[in-house]
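User: I'm preparing a small set of examples for a lab meeting where we compare how different chains pack in three dimensions. I only have the primary sequence for this one, and I'd like the structure in token form so I can line it up with the others. Please keep the answer compact; I'll paste it straight into my notes.
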Amino acid sequence: MPNAVSLCMMVKNEERNLPRCLDSVRDLAGELILVDTGSTDRTPRIAARYGAQVIPFDFRIVDFAAARNRAIARASGAFMKPSTPRFCPEADASLEPASASITVFLQTGKREAARTTGTSRS
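Assistant: Understood. Below is the structure token output for the 122-residue chain.
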């Protein structure tokens, strides 16, 4: 199930956090989709280096739901279907090695595996 998980993120000026976040999901997500809401730093270039689809988003009218939905609309992973879990972390979050159970859940869909999960924020 290599493309079962689509990682969808909204980002703006996250060049400091993005590498750690994307490194933490490198083996989990089959595709990376980042909606950029107006970065003035290297965020789009960093995301592209990781193979992410970077989608510019006009955020002059602040609408977080519309930005998130733009990413979800581009996602092709099985877990982006309406009735399944979505993986839309913030850029300052990362999966820790102790998060193995959530990784199994995202890859297999077996809810029992998700009972003990861990994410961290720096």
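A couple of notes for your slides: The beta strands are 6-11, 31-36, 53-56, 93-95, 119-121. The domain at 6-91 is CATH 3.40.50 (Rossmann fold).

User: Perfect, thanks.
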